[in-house]
Request: fold
Amino acid sequence: MSTQAIPLSKSRWRMEEDQEVIPTATTVSYEDLVLFSHPALNPAYTLVFGVIASSPPLEAKRPVKYVLGQRTSIPGAQYSVPWFDAGSEQFELPATIVSLSDWPEMREHPERLKAAFNLAGLIAHFDQGQMADWAAFVDSFCFFIGLHATPLERFRELAKAWKTDVRFLSDTNEICSHPAYQEIVGMGILALPFIFAELEREPDNWFWALKAITGRDPVPENQRGNLELMTKAWLGWAEGRRKQLGADWQRVFLRFAP
Amino acid sequence: MDKVELKLCFPGLAGCRFEITSARTRFYNCIAWAAGETHRRWWPDKMNVDYWPEGVPREATLEAFIAAYATLGYEACDNGNYESGFEKIVIFTKPAGTPTHAARQLPGGNWTSKLGDEEDIEHELRGIECLRYGYARQFMKRPTNPGQ
Reply:
């Protein structure tokens, strides 16, 4: 491996002339590195674009993060991998971090590697606009985490406060204007999985939030007010979206499969 | 929720007789219960989620609620006194006139209310007047057997 000092603040880096690489993932786990970069598993990540190393004299030079780049690979070709010298203040990369090894509680999850792999595979094929959307989503999520507990914990707190306060009310306008409910609406798509799970457990007045967050309404006019049928309609819609999403992902993977 | 808790939430119930007459459920609300329905919630909400009778303005005003119950044959009347041969309902409003609740009269003169997501209760009319529900504002009635 050759060693180079390259500014880490740029969102696009060049390894060599005319070889622009978009850093789309980083990982601190060698296990992830092998999986993501194995050509048989993921042709988009055959290239380990770089290694972020700690800088002396703070500590001995050692790999801190590996950067994975999106670039078409040539099977069997050997690539030099640059090392980037970085102080601790520079470890925040402009790349999207998809490695779940940064999420300790997920390390033991059986779906961890699969999920990380799928995510990395999808992101690898993002164009610049999609990459900006994804970065915005990750940024929003991190912003939320910085403000509150995890989205699930925050949702549970808010839902409990809301249910307690509105239990004697029939006025749907008032029920759904409750500050806790409005905060759940404000969580946006982060709240959707929890709302659907809550609907499955116990149908309740989540339809305002669902309409506000998704901009959709799968409930037929003649089912208005019928909690059972509205719940069924929304859960069916969610299931349809999940299937569609799964099909989209599959299409992407098949398109780029070796 | 037991009767003690209900008395804490509705202080007016402490001074009168009432009974819990159902399990708690969210599948209908007080407006639907007064209308005799238990399979859907009635409210003219802004997001068009709940049921509201077709042709009636979708707005939370006393006039709209009177019009909604009129679709079931109810007409405005002056009081909640029991009248043989008639069914009565009452619409509660806050002092500013915004509807909050509705109750239906039972044979014999007592009233039945669905309390939000909680249980149905049989009660005296004034027992549930409170800051949350306001007070009994508009009575309506219809013949028990309109064909006769």
